[in-house]
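In the current project phase, work has continued on tokenised descriptions of protein folds. One protein thus recorded appears below exactly as we store it.

——
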Amino acid sequence: MVAIPPGERLVAGVDLGGTNVRTCIARADGAILARARTPTPADDGPAAVVERVVAGVREVAQTAGVAVRQLAGVGVGAPGPLDMRSGIVFSPPNLAGWHDVPLAALLRDALGVPVHIGNDANLAAVGERAFGAGRGIDNLVYMTVSTGIGGGVIVAGKLFVGSSGTAAEIGHMTVDLHGPRCKCGNIGCLEAIAAGPAIARSGREAARGAPESRLLALAGGTADRVTTSLVVQAAREGDAVAQAVFERAAEAIGVGCVNLVNLFNPRRIIIGGGVSQAGELLFAPVRRVVAERALPSPRDACTIMGAGLGDDCGLYGAVALVAHGVDTLV
């Protein structure tokens, strides 16, 4: 049990992913006092997921030594598309059977405290601004590059959600007019070219045509075993084939950042997600492309850097949604 100062109201944060439900209890300053993780029953419909989230909140509240009814509220980062204002999740591709689910209302009824929800990638931007690499920055863009590419935009200190609550689908901006078909139906999306699965796919194709490459050797001589992490490893070891594959993805992300710089004139672009762990292998080409292509004035005002909160950025964003007040953020 954690010692809680008298009179302090704590917040529960939930990061609802397609694989795991991550839950925490935190103070308003972002200090996490208790956390839990449990698999997401993604194929069992909304009721099973709601039950799992409720159980997670109760578990971390018990660990922190606070009754759920004493919480200031619960913030939930959920897969979009969704509407923050109504608390309804529409049809997320990685949660089976979800269609216009009133997630905030269902959790509020079960827990008896205020519940606010937000798009998980959007809330990662909120988390980085509140507690991470964007602390104190009123105009920023957060981009996550992982299995998919998503993000969030903070304008004048507020999360930009758009007229229907679905703004900042960064991964689905077109960066190649004649590029590959994206799973969203568009052609040449950033996600279809530079997300983790796209890098792995390009790596497999390249390895098949390069029998002497280090990349193919790392995959045990079988191109179908090439993964994104093997592409990064081979590129770091100097393999020209892997370097070309990863640089193409990094340059595409750079083009995406050029668009973001020119559109939003942010003070900072923060890049997180698993692919960002490649470090300067990613950031050097991104910064080079932005330096070459972005308009000078917004380019010079913007710094591009890695995320400060790692995998916890969405969880911190969910905490901030409640601790800092929805009205002040959106």
Observations:
- The chain has twelve helices and twelve strands.
- The radius of gyration is 20 Å.
- The chain has two domains: 11-126+312-329, 136-307.
